[in-house]
Amino acid sequence: MNDEDLFKKQQGKFKIHSTTGKIEENSNLKEELRLKTSILDMHVDPIFLHDIKGNCLYLNETACKFLGYTKDKLMKTNLYDLNFPEFSKLNLQSEELVKQELRFQSTHFKKDKSIIPVEIHSKLIEIKSEKLILSTARDITELKKTEKNLRWNINLIRSVAENSPLAFYVVDNKTDSVLYLNHNFCKLWGLKDLEKEIEEGKLKNKEVISKILHLAEDKEYFMETCAPLHHEENRSTLEDEISLTDGRIIRRFSKQIRDKEDLYFGRLFICEDISERKKIENSIKNREEHLSLITDNMLDLMFQVNSEGIFEYVSPSIKDLLGYESEDIIGKRDYEFIGMTHPDDFEILIDTIQLVIQTLKPNRTQHRLKHADGHYIWVETVGNPLSNNKGEFSGAVYITRDITELKKVETQLKSSLEEKEVLLREIHHRVKNNMQIISSLLNLQSRYLNDEKTVNVLNESRNRVRSMAMVHEELYRSRDLSKIDFADYIQRLLSGLFNSYGIDKNFIKPEINVEDVLLNIDIAVPCGLIINELVSNSLKHAFVQGQKGKISIKFHPQDEKYVLKVADDGIGFPENIDFNNTKTLGLQLVTTLVKQLAGSINIYKDTGTLFKIVF
């Protein structure tokens, strides 16, 4: 049955007839007509039969539901009046319809004014010499959404590819056609813009390879690695580095492009210029090799732990130092290293490690480590913290040095120093005793003399000897043989002078204001003699018989120097005596001792007498 048999015109409308006569005359033909109509109504797509002017001659039930109109309304309405502008194309393109079927996309306007995208499939048929158009319309809303999403994805991918620093290249290995390449690919390989050739489908992969082959340093390898990739069955992934004749290094990556159903589309190539990165990597590698050469050959033990206390590096010198191999320690935790420490040194080492972690500052300690054969060696360990870019502790580098021999020498020196200290104390003790003997002899000698002047001279000499003897006594008693407690020394010196001259401290009161100062013997002896002479002078001459008063001594450091003040509130220093040019032995001795100390002396006579000595 042909199209003319199916559609026959009656009173301006087309009805379905049989090819042999009136339907009413043949019940079989009625049933056939009903069946065909039902089939057309059940078709999922709208079906229209109309003339070139747009007059609707037939439509199925699907068309009515699709557009929202009743069949009577549509049958009485010109399709162009329903605002189907694309139908007018059928009139203009009717000649094409004679030659072939026509497919195009359009939009349909439903009764509720909504717009539906459709795909129209039309063909020209002829019934009783009248040209009619049979069309089907398919709702392509979902297809349009898919196309829109696809276009968005394509544009996104293209945008990413064009803005990426990487070079992209896609080839259909079945046809050898280049499907896509971005600007960076052309720039990387020195090619002109090939976009137009790609759009026209004229660019072939072999042409591109021939244009860039001359840049490859190893052309044979380049061709070998390209050739197998052209085959669809080759699913391998290629990743390598290509050296170019201009000195650049290109990282190349290639992989087949397949969809979820494993349908093969082509092959993707990604290229990247990694020349600068390789320079940095080589520089880092050279530095690491250099550092490794240093650390592997250094005598000191060097090891690195991470933030969790796991050993990441141990220098080979651990073999010579402790008898272990590096592999025995790497990967273990730091508490195993601490476990090698002498029990008496546990707390010292743990405290040092904690300080390194908490303060992020280097710290050092001395402790003992157990050798693989069981004996202990003395070491000095310096911990250097490592931190991340947030300033947080990320690990530490420890350097451990064998100081066993140093400790032996230190012990020997300590023993030797102790012996010398004992000897020096004995010397000070004997010097003090000898001076006390001299003082006693002078005291004994003075008892056999009747001349008061001579006796006074002997007593003054005895006091001078006693002041020097007291220095040696202080040193003998001191923990530090090089320095004496000057405050204690002055207290004892004044007490001895007051006793020597028979002075009641309630009558003439001594006032001592001396800061805690430690002086060596080269300063203490002359300073003690100066105080001895000035205090003796005050006790003998400053106070008339029966007069009460006080003698004060002040001593303190000032601006990297020392200031000594000896004062009394007595009758004052005689105006007619120049203490710098006096013939008195005591004052001459004071002047000489001040010069010995590289100091200066001044006298003030406002109230009593004040000597100020700065050295």
From TrEMBL:
Residues 32-86, 287-360 form the PAS domain. Residues 363-415 form the PAC domain. PROSITE patterns: HIS_KIN, PAC, PAS. Coiled coil: none annotated. GO terms for biological process: phosphorelay signal transduction system; regulation of DNA-templated transcription. SUPFAM superfamilies: ATPase domain of HSP90 chaperone/DNA topoisomerase II/histidine kinase, PYP-like sensor domain (PAS domain). Signal peptide: none annotated. Residues 426-615 form the Histidine kinase domain. NCBIfam families: sensory_box. This is Histidine kinase. It comes from Methanobacterium bryantii. The lineage of its organism: Archaea, Methanobacteriati, Methanobacteriota, Methanomada group, Methanobacteria.
